[in-house]
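Inputs:
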Amino acid sequence: RQLDEVCLPLFFGWFLLTPAQDQLRSTGSDFLTALDGFKKNAVGQEIPLEQYFKGKRSLHCTTKFCDYGKAEGAKEYAEKPVSELYGSVFDLAVSALFVTPRTFGARVSLTDEQLVLWPADAEKEAESSVPGAGSLPLGSRAHITLGCADGVEPVQTGLDLLEILVLPEVEPVTDLELGSLRFYGEGRWMLELKEPMCAAACFSSFYK
Ligand code: A2P
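Outputs:
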């Protein structure tokens, strides 16, 4: 059976295999601990970040949110090359981790081969929420949600990433063991990993 209209999923994306999920969760947790430690000296401590963010579900990098066919462009997206690559395993490069008052996520740097699965309008679609996002390179929004603050929807993670990426580059505030830490104001932090993490992930889809 073809991936047609009646069976379009909630979303397509890369779903991390279990070892990659475990490794990313563990690196994420190390980052939150290190950031808590740094903030304690720099800006005073609030509640531990690990408690602040509610992690959930299996870790994935959404490509196209289809809403069972209701989202614009969902049907067109599910054609080639998506249907041909469905079920294939890819090595995703996790290049950075970020925290905002709303979300905790990992930035994914897509290769040209992976970008063929990236919707052409993913960044433009965010322009109304994040002015300037539409001019960022294709794939800028690619991320893995690691946690959200109470009452925040996971769609916010990609928007928070874009919000950081449209800002002018700043100097790192410190070098942590995992990499250099930058502060973008308004509670926004980004850690560029010294060694990008390779995460094996299966290109597939999710139905609730
Ligand atoms: P993300 O990919 O940032 O984690 P939900 O559980 O809210 O129905 O969302 C299911 C998945 O689809 C989540 O992974 C979520 O965010 C993503 N998502 C939800 N809404 C959108 C949207 N409007 N655009 C892009 N991705 C979305």
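Remarks. Strands lie at 11-16, 60-65, 89-99, 103-109, 143-148, 174-175, 179-183, 189-206. The CA atoms of residues 92 and 199 lie 5 Å apart.
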